[in-house]
Design brief:
The radius of gyration is 18 Å and the shape is globular. Strand 7 and strand 8 form a beta hairpin. The longest helix is centred in the first third of the chain and has 12 residues. By secondary structure, it is mostly beta strands. Helix 1 crosses helix 3. The chain is built from three helices and nine strands, in the order βαββαβαβββββ. Strands 1, 2, 3, 4, 5, 6, 7, 8 and 9 form a nine-stranded antiparallel sheet that branches. The model has no long low-confidence stretch (mean pLDDT 87).
């Protein structure tokens, strides 16, 4: 089982119900991690690797939460305002939560995929010989500004891993898939494993909600 280490100094995972006050999930949602992996290998089609299983673990302590004031734009689409959004009318300051010093572990299982070249294989290529991967833009976890420090194989010296395990009674609810057209999502409940041992319940299957 190949485990990978991901380091992101500052990011945010806005909750689905967040509006003016952008509250963040405390853990990386599987839907976000899947999007990160697709970006890593240069894949633009979200459906290419459906069926892949991923496991997410937290390394070290819970990342601290910071609250900032950030200017955000609010667009009102209408026939009269197409392409015209003056800052004086459509921008205002809002609060946003940030996670800092986030370090996570990832494991990928592509046995359920139908892709000719699986996501696990493409990620392995991206890590070992990145010149073989064709991609564009910065590599981020979450919003585009949340750039990652690095992605590499996990080392024991990185610290113990506390895995997110599927638990229908768990208090951690995270999106697994978000439909871009309807913005509706599929959610799963989790519990953070305290023992540091990997369990089969940590696997989450990425599949569309249609």
């Amino acid at each position: 089982m190949n485990t990978f280490y991901l380091d992101c100094p500052c990011t945010s995972f806005p909750r689905s119900f967040a509006r003016d006050y952008k509250e963040t999930y405390l853990y990386p949602p599987p839907s976000t991690v899947y999007g990160f992996l697709l970006s890593l290998v240069g894949e633009e089609d979200l459906t290419t690797h459906l069926g892949v299983k991923i496991a997410i673990g937290l390394i070290g302590n819970h990342p601290p939460i910071s609250r900032i004031v950030r200017k955000q734009r609010h667009h009102k689409f209408s026939k009269q305002r197409l392409g015209t959004y003056p800052s004086s009318k459509f921008s205002k300051p809002n609060f946003q939560e940030l996670l800092t010093d986030l370090k996570i572990a990832l494991v990928i299982d592509s046995s359920g995929e139908k892709a000719q070249v699986t996501l696990a294989e493409r990620v392995a290529i991206a890590v070992s010989t990145p010149d073989q991967i064709s991609r564009f833009g910065g590599l981020s976890l979450g919003e585009s500004w949340a750039m990652v420090n690095g992605f590499r194989p996990y080392r024991e010296s990185d610290g113990p891993i506390h895995w997110l395990v599927v638990d229908n009674r768990g208090l951690i609810a995270l999106p697994v898939w978000i439909d871009r057209k309807t913005t509706q999502g599929t959610f799963q409940r989790f519990t953070l494993e305290k023992t540091g041992e990997f369990r089969q319940e940590a696997w989450v299957t990425i599949k569309a909600n249609y």
